[in-house]
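Example for tutorial group B:
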C-alpha cells in the first residue's frame, strides 16, 4: 500500500477499499461497489447515507445548508458518508437503514407477438459456381434474403469464398444498411438469442429471448449502479457534465446491464457471444448516459430531442455480448419522456385503440400519456422518488423489511400493516406511504391542507417539528420509532400535486372531462402494488368514473421485448415517438394553476366526483 493510501473496511460486507488520503467516503463506497442510499447524490441533503465509524478516525465537513446529525446520532458514531473524508485507516459499519438490498422488482413483461420478425436472421449461403472454381470467379447468394445488399468485411468475404463447407450467415438489419455480422459452418450454426432490457433509473431488468421462437428463456434484475451518484435525473445529469463524470455514469449503466446478462447466461448455459441483438427501453437521460452522449442540454426547457432510435454496436460501449451485435434504444420523445414511455404505449395498445385512454407510469420520474389511435399527447412530471419510498425519513424501496401496505382504522386510529419478508419493519415503501397518507386523512391525523393535526394523540413534536408515530420502536427492526414527519408529508403533497396537476393539464388542453376516459393503463410498480383507491382518495390520481383500470406491468420491458422480436413493432415505436405531442410543464402556464389546486386533499371537485374536500 502506498504511503499516501488509506485502507477503509466496510462492515458487515467485509469489503476493503484502498484510496488516497482525503478521499470522500461516498466515493470510496462507490468505487468498492457497495450500494448505499444517496438520494441527493452527495449534496448533504437527504440524510440517507448514514454510516457508523467503528475504528480509526475521519474528517467530517458538513456542506453549507446540508443536514446535521442529532446529538444522539453523533454520540453513537454516526456520520453522513457524503460529509466524510478518510484521513487514516478506519472501519465503518453500514447500518441496515442505509443499505440497498435486492428490491422487489416487477418482472412481468411478456407480450403475445403473433408474427415474429426479428432484426437479426440466419440465411444459408450459396456459392456459385462450385468450390472447384477459382475464388475470383465465384459469387455469393443469400437464399431467401430479399433486402438491399448487406455490408461485409473483406476478411469475412474472403473466408466465405475459400470455404469448402455449407455456411450460414447472420444478417443484422438493425441499422439502415444491413450487415453480415457472423458466418459459420451450417453444422455449427447456433440458435439466435437476444436480450431485452428495461434500463430504469433505479433498477435494471432483462430477459433472454430465443429469436427463433420468441420464447423468454430467463429473466433477471439488478440495481442500477448509477444510484449512488443520485436518484434524481437532474442529479445524474449534473454529475455527467464533465467527461470523467460522463464516463463513470456510462460505465455504471453498462456494468448494470452486464450484471443482468451474466445472470441470464449463467442460468441458461448460453454463451454471451451467442447474443446477437439487444434492445433497451430507458428514459431519455438513461439512453444518453448508456450511449455516452452528454445529457446536460436536457436541463433546458423545450430542448429539442431527436426522435429516432439510438443505435450503437456492443463493442462501442463494451457490452458483454457478441461485439458485432447492435444495441437498439427505443426512440425518445422529449427531454424527460423516453423510450420507456414509448414501450409503455406499445404494451398498452392505446395507440391503436378507438377509445380515449390515459397511461400513467409513476416512478422516480412520472410519465403521463393521453389519447387514442388518432392522436397522442404527453407530459412528464417531477414525481421524484417519493412513490418509490425515496425522500421520506423512513422511506425505502420495496425490499425485505419494507412495510408494503398499511391500514389505519378511521375510528380507533389502530395501525395494521404487512412487511416484505415478514420481518420487523425497517421502513416504509411507496405503496405503504400512499396507504398511510390516505388513512391519516380518514382518521383525522392529517387535515385537507396536508398538515398534521397536532392535537391527535399519535402526533408529537420531533427534532424537525410535528411527526406521526406509525410504528413504535419496540415493534421495528431499527430500534427507533418509524415516523412520518410534516416534512415527509410536505414532500408527498408536492409530489401528489405535481402528478394530479399534470393529468389535469392534459385534460384541460384537450377539453376532456374525467368521464371521457374509458381506459387507464398503469405501468410499472406503482400500478402493480399500489392500492389505486387510496391514490384517488389522497388525490394523486383523479376519479375516472367510466374508466376501466389495466395494470400492464413492466411496460418498458414489454416494449423492449416487442421491438426485439418484431420489426413491425420497431416501426410502431418510431411512429408513436414521432406523432406524440409533448407539453413541457416547466413552461406551461396552465400547470401552476392546476398544481396549486391539487395542493389540497383530494383536489379540484370536478376531478373527484365521488369525493368531497372534507370526505376521504
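The residue assignment follows.
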Amino acid at each position: 500500500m502506498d504511503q499516501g493510501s488509506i485502507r477503509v473496511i466496510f462492515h458487515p460486507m467485509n469489503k476493503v477499499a484502498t484510496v488516497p488520503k482525503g478521499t470522500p467516503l461516498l466515493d470510496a463506497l462507490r468505487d468498492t461497489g457497495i450500494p448505499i442510499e444517496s438520494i441527493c447524490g452527495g449534496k448533504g441533503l437527504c440524510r440517507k447515507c448514514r454510516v457508523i465509524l467503528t475504528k480509526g478516525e475521519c474528517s467530517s465537513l458538513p456542506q453549507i445548508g446540508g443536514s446535521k446529525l442529532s446529538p444522539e446520532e453523533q454520540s453513537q458514531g454516526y456520520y453522513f458518508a457524503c460529509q466524510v473524508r478518510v484521513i487514516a485507516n478506519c472501519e465503518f459499519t453500514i447500518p441496515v437503514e442505509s443499505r440497498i438490498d435486492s428490491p422487489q422488482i416487477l418482472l412481468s413483461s411478456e407480450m403475445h407477438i403473433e408474427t415474429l420478425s426479428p432484426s437479426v436472421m440466419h440465411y444459408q449461403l450459396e456459392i456459385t459456381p462450385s468450390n472447384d472454381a477459382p475464388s475470383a470467379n465465384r459469387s455469393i447468394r443469400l437464399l431467401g434474403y430479399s433486402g438491399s445488399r448487406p455490408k461485409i468485411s473483406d476478411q469475412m468475404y474472403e473466408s466465405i469464398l475459400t470455404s469448402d463447407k455449407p455456411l450460414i450467415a447472420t444478417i443484422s438489419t438493425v441499422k439502415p444498411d444491413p450487415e453480415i455480422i457472423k458466418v459459420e459452418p451450417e453444422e455449427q450454426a447456433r440458435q439466435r438469442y437476444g436480450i431485452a432490457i428495461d434500463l430504469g433509473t433505479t433498477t435494471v431488468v432483462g430477459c433472454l429471448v430465443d429469436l427463433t421462437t420468441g420464447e423468454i428463456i430467463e429473466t433477471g434484475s439488478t440495481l442500477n449502479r448509477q444510484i449512488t451518484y443520485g436518484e434524481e435525473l437532474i442529479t445524474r445529469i449534473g454529475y455527467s457534465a464533465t467527461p470523467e463524470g460522463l464516463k463513470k455514469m456510462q460505465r455504471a449503466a453498462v456494468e448494470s446491464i452486464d450484471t443482468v446478462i451474466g445472470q441470464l447466461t449463467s442460468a441458461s448455459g448460453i454463451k454471451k457471444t451467442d447474443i446477437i441483438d439487444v434492445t433497451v427501453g430507458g428514459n431519455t437521460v438513461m439512453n444518453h448516459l448508456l450511449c455516452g452522449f452528454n445529457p446536460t442540454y436536457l436541463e433546458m426547457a423545450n430542448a429539442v430531442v431527436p426522435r429516432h432510435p439510438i443505435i450503437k454496436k456492443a463493442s462501442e460501449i463494451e457490452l458483454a455480448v457478441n461485439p458485432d451485435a447492435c444495441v437498439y434504444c427505443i426512440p425518445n420523445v422529449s427531454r424527460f419522456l423516453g423510450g420507456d414511455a414509448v414501450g409503455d404505449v406499445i404494451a398498452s395498445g392505446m395507440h391503436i385503440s378507438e377509445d380515449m385512454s390515459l397511461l400513467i407510469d409513476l416512478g422516480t420520474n412520472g410519465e403521463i400519456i393521453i389519447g387514442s389511435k388518432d392522436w397522442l399527447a404527453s407530459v412528464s412530471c417531477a414525481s421524484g422518488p417519493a412513490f418509490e419510498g425515496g425522500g421520506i425519513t423512513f422511506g425505502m424501496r420495496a425490499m425485505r423489511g419494507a412495510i408494503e401496505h398499511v391500514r389505519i382504522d378511521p375510528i380507533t386510529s389502530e395501525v395494521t400493516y404487512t412487511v416484505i419478508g415478514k420481518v420487523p419493519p425497517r421502513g416504509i415503501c411507496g405503496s405503504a406511504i400512499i396507504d398511510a397518507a390516505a388513512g391519516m386523512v380518514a382518521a383525522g391525523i392529517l387535515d385537507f391542507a396536508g398538515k398534521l393535526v397536532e392535537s391527535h394523540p399519535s402526533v408529537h413534536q420531533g427534532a424537525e417539528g410535528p411527526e406521526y408515530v406509525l410504528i413504535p420502536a419496540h415493534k421495528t427492526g431499527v430500534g427507533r420509532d418509524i415516523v412520518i414527519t410534516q416534512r415527509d408529508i410536505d414532500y408527498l403533497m408536492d409530489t401528489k400535486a405535481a402528478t394530479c396537476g399534470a393529468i389535469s393539464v392534459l385534460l384541460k388542453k384537450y377539453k376532456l372531462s374525467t368521464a371521457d376516459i374509458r381506459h387507464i393503463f398503469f405501468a410499472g410498480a406503482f400500478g402493480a402494488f399500489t392500492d389505486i383507491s387510496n391514490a384517488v382518495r389522497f388525490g394523486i390520481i383523479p376519479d375516472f368514473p367510466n374508466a376501466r383500470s389495466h395494470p400492464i406491468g413492466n411496460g418498458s420491458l414489454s416494449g423492449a421485448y416487442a421491438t426485439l422480436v418484431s420489426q413491425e413493432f420497431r416501426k410502431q415505436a418510431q411512429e408513436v415517438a414521432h406523432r406524440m405531442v409533448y407539453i413541457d410543464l416547466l413552461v406551461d402556464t396552465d400547470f401552476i394553476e392546476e398544481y396549486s389546486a391539487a395542493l389540497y386533499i383530494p383536489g379540484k371537485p370536478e376531478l373527484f366526483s365521488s369525493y368531497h374536500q372534507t370526505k376521504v
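DSSP finds 15 helices and 27 strands in the chain. Compare this with the pattern of hydrophobic and polar residues in the output above.
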